[in-house]
């Protein structure tokens, strides 16, 4: 049995999709074809009685394009764009999930949701209730009210913290990065692809380079490895893969040799707050 066969047994999965995979780069408008496919694949996982959470970016980009803006000028604009774009995105998700007989649920979080004990406890209870109701939580940072002091800043980190919060057993990070290389493949032709990571040691962390080619979204390899560190310590396996076609989610869950697989290495003393303070922004 290959180590990837374990992926078939996963029961609670968090899928994070970056802005660049959800919108048209040229116009910033939602890529309906891709979003529809994403929803169908996730609805089908729900049909297999697995709990599924979607961490979706795109609020700011969609809001910006809806208003015909190309650039961001101020924090206030970013927050206003997020308010408009987030509701547009959720409207779309809700409609598409309903077509497949599923119910979507919006969960917006700030860093306070994780650091404050009462908030964190409530958020965990809400997720559990949503799973009992067989709803599909769609999570994003609450960009409308967050400022630098209380933001996660990127959805890679947010999705790992959500995975830890809800005791997920698999986190899939999808973006324009196909996985971990021993060096930046755009600069070094000898860079090796790493398909399996058993131990996320300091040497691997040092390999983190900002390899994202996208101009939207915020996550590069560094935030992905940070996410892997959190997920692994919390006992959650993680995969980084490229999201050219969202069918890849299904292939991953069937044990396909896709992307980089970070094996969980659960730390008995794992405590979410320790990791949040390590993010360096509290
Ligand atoms: N929360 C941001 C948004 O929805 C995206 C953050 C990220 O891409 O990491 O626009």
Protein described:
This protein is an alpha/beta fold and 282 residues long. It has helices at 32-47, 59-66, 75-99, 111-115, 117-132, 155-165, 202-206, 221-234, 247-253, 272-278; strands spanning 12-17, 51-56, 104-109, 136-141, 170-175, 180-181, 193-194, 196-197, 237-242, 260-262. The strands form two sheets. Strands 3-4-2-1-5-9-10-8 form an eight-stranded mixed sheet, sandwiched between helices. Helix 1 links the parallel strand 1 and strand 2. It starts with 11 loop residues before the first strand and ends with a helix. 44% of the residues are buried. The chain binds glutamic acid. Glutamic acid binds next to helix 2 and strand 4.
In a few lines, what is going on in this structure?
With 282 residues, the protein is α/β, with parallel strands linked by helices. Helix content is 40%, strand content 16%. Helix 2 packs across helix 3 and helix 6 packs parallel to helix 8.
SSE layout:
Layout: E1 12-17, H1 32-47, E2 51-56, H2 59-66, H3 75-99, E3 104-109, H4 111-115, H5 117-132, E4 136-141, H6 155-165, E5 170-175, E6 180-181, E7 193-194, E8 196-197, H7 202-206, H8 221-234, E9 237-242, H9 247-253, E10 260-262, H10 272-278
């Amino acid at each position: 049995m290959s180590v990837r066969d374990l992926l078939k047994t996963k029961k609670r999965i968090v899928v994070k999709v970056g802005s660049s995979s959800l919108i048209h780069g040229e116009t910033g408008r939602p890529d309906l074809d891709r979003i529809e496919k994403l929803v169908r694949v996730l609805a089908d996982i729900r049909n297999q009685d697995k709990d599924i959470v979607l961490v979706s970016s795109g609020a700011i980009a969609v809001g910006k394009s809806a208003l015909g803006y190309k650039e961001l000028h101020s924090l206030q604009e970013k927050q206003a764009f997020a308010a408009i774009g987030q509701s547009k995105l959720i409207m779309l998700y809700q409609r598409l999930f309903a077509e497949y007989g599923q119910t979507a649920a919006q969960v917006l979080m700030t860093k306070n949701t994780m650091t404050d004990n009462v908030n964190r406890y409530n958020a965990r209870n809400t997720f559990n209730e949503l799973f009992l109701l067989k709803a599909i939580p769609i999570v994003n940072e609450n960009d409308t009210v967050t400022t630098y002091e209380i933001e996660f800043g990127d959805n890679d980190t947010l999705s790992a913290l959500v995975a830890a919060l809800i005791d997920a057993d698999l986190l899939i990070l999808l973006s324009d990065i196909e996985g971990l290389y021993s060096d930046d493949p755009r600069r070094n032709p000898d860079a090796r692809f790493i398909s399996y990571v058993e131990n996320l040691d300091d040497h691997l962390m040092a390999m983190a380079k900002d390899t994202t080619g996208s101009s939207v979204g915020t996550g590069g390899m560094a935030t992905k490895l940070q996410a892997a560190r959190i997920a692994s310590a919390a006992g959650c396996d993680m995969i980084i893969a490229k999201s050219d076609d969202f069918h890849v989610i299904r292939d991953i869950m069937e044990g396909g040799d896709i992307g980089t697989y970070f094996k969980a290495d659960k730390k008995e003393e794992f405590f979410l707050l320790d990791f949040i303070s390590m993010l360096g922004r509290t």
